[in-house]
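Incident log, support desk, overnight shift.

02:14 A customer reports that sequence design results differ from what the structure should imply. Their input is reproduced verbatim below. On-call engineer (initials T.W.) acknowledged and began investigating.
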């Protein structure tokens, strides 16, 4: 298969998500609904909840936002003391109900359902192998591959089967599995995607991010460790080292853009604090004489605060976001994406009249957003100069571990120098945070994956070299 074809296929199968699970609470489904509500930023395409009362599993899922999908009546159809839920991110190709999770099946272990955040790098070859042996697939998601592997696993107990599968799959997975009598959480050996454990009202909860705990009033206990399998049942917690894990590869983009600023991830570090630090480093490394600094809301706000603090420039709002539209980045067609930026962000007229303005955003992917913004601030906002500062390094390579970056050709920084990008964006100056600057804002910087910025993929990528 040609590289391009392979890449298209990979991006079609992309899984970007938020997961939430609870064991030991009579209102498991309601609490899962709230957890998913707090994790909505991790996926807006569709959502689902699967609950269990110890005998029977119940599942409800649909396309759309969590609040649209789950009515009171629908939640009543999800009884039981245990539940898992999933928010799915929108993708270019696979936007359909059959890909919405959790996915449920009956196998030797009885009824089982699964919710997965991350991307497997060997899903295509495993799928081929399974199909060769007669497996029939209902969706094109990585997660169904995991389900089949569990069904085929030779181990005697559920735990043995899960360990076998966890060692067979490669890539990024923060995985929740619900069985009739237990909830199991498994995290890949590198810990690419976050996954935290908490406690609420005598029950255990597991979530992609701790903002889900805050909403329900749960207490954060710790992260599920990379390579750990945590079994939660009526006997409490049982932790097993499922996969050898000697190298961390936490996704640094979770800090830059993806996670919510009020969450604590990767060992309990506050996302907002790190983002502010990124802004500070940016101000140190790429000073420019200016009158005011403004954020691209919402994700650019914390780094702009850091930039303002460090540079001594006043912080102001020059752009307003309409919160009631989906994220522009996820729209499949280029024409819609351009429109998306317009309906999403608007300049506050004349606020920057005659001023030299620094705009801070977290990242440039295709350049679509930044180009519109520079134009808006110059024309509507009446700025004299527009300087763009990006609180991450140049995004030059696609992610194969669960962040929805487009193919290499669509990444503006993969094919253009910074000066060429500046010209394209029509900014007076443009600067990105350096990789060293990014590393210096992180505790234990060697524990992160920077592949989208340096093409050094810590786990490898699907089959052939798609970056070439
Ligand atoms: P673009 O217009 O393609 O350059 O996208 C850049 C904008 O998309 C920035 O404002 C980022 O905040 C945002 N962004 C970056 N990464 C993602 C992502 N994985 N999903 C959605 N939006 C993103």
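02:41 Re-run completed on a clean worker. Output:
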């Amino acid at each position: 298969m040609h590289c391009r074809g392979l890449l298209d296929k990979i991006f079609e199968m992309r899984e970007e998500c938020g997961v939430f699970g609870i064991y030991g609470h009579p209102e498991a489904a309601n609490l899962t609904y709230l957890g998913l509500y707090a994790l909505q930023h991790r996926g807006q395409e569709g959502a689902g909840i699967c609950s269990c009362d110890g005998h029977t599993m119940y599942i409800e899922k649909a396309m759309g936002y969590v609040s649209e999908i789950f009515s009171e009546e629908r939640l009543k159809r999800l009884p039981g003391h245990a539940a898992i839920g999933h928010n799915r991110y929108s993708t270019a190709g696979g936007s359909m109900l059959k890909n919405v999770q959790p996915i449920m099946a009956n196998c030797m272990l009885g009824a089982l359902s699964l919710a997965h955040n991350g991307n497997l790098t060997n899903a295509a070859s495993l799928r081929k192998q399974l199909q060769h042996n007669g497996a029939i697939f209902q969706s094109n998601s990585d997660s169904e591959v995991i389900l089949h592997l569990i069904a085929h696993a030779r181990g005697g107990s559920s735990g043995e089967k899960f360990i076998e599968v966890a060692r067979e799959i490669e890539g990024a997975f923060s995985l929740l599995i619900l069985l009739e009598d237990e909830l199991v959480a498994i995290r890949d050996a590198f810990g690419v995607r976050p996954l935290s454990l908490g406690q609420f009202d005598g029950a255990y909860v597991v979530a992609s991010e701790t903002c889900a705990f805050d909403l329900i009033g749960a207490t954060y206990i710790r992260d599920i460790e990379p390579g750990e399998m945590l079994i939660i049942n009526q006997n409490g917690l049982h932790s097993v080292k499922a996969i050898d894990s000697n190298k961390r590869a936490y996704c640094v983009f979770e800090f830059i853009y993806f996670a919510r600023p009020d969450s604590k991830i990767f060992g309990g570090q506050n996302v907002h604090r790190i983002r502010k630090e990124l802004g500070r480093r940016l101000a140190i490394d790429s000073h420019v004489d200016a009158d005011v600094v403004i954020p691209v809301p919402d994700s650019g706000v914390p780094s702009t605060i850091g930039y303002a603090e460090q540079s001594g420039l006043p912080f102001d709002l020059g752009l307003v976001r309409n919160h009631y539209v989906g994220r522009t980045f996820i729209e499949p067609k280029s024409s819609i994406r351009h429109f998306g930026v317009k309906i999403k962000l608007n300049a506050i007229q004349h606020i920057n009249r005659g001023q030299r303005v620094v705009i801070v955003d977290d990242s440039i992917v295709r350049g679509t957003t930044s180009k519109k913004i520079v134009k808006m601030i110059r024309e509507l906002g009446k700025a004299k100069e527009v300087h763009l500062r990006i609180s991450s390094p140049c995004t030059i390579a696609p992610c194969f571990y669960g962040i929805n970056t487009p193919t290499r050709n669509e990444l503006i920084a993969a094919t253009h120098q910074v000066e060429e990008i500046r010209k394209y964006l029509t900014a007076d100056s443009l600067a990105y945070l350096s990789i060293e600057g990014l590393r210096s804002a992180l505790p234990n910087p060697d524990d992160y994956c920077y592949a989208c910025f340096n093409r050094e993929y810590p786990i490898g990528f699907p089959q052939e070299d798609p970056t070439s």
